[in-house]
Request: fold
Amino acid sequence: QVHLVESGGGLVQAGGSLRLSCVASGSIASINRRDWYRQTPGKQRELVATITSGGSTNYADSVKGRFTISRDNAKNTVYLQMNSLKPEDTAVYYCGAERVYDYNWGQGTQVIVSS
Reply:
C-alpha cells in the first residue's frame, strides 16, 4: 500500500498562488502515475493534473497555463504549483497514486480562493 499526505492548502486571494505538496511512503516503487484531483461539494472528483513515472504531464483544460505538476523523486514528493488562482479553483485537492493493482488517495487539503 501507498500512504499519501498532502499539505499546502489554505486561503488565498484571486490572482494569488499556492503550492501543494504530496509526500508518498510505503510501496512507492510500484507507482506508475501520480495525480492531483479536486472536489467541491455535490460534484464528482475532477482530475486536475497527472505526471507519469516517465515524467509526462497532462492537465485539465481549466488549469492549463496556470498550474504546474512536478516531482522530486529524492523526496518522494509531487507538487502542484497553482498560479493565477480563481474563485472557481476553490475545492478540496487530493493527490492520488496509481499502481497496476490499486489506486491510493491522500486525505485532501482545502484550497479557498476569495474574490
Remarks:
- The chain is about 0% helix and 55% strand.
- The mean pLDDT is 96.
- The longest strand covers residues 18-26.
- Residues 79 and 104 are 17 Å apart (CA to CA).
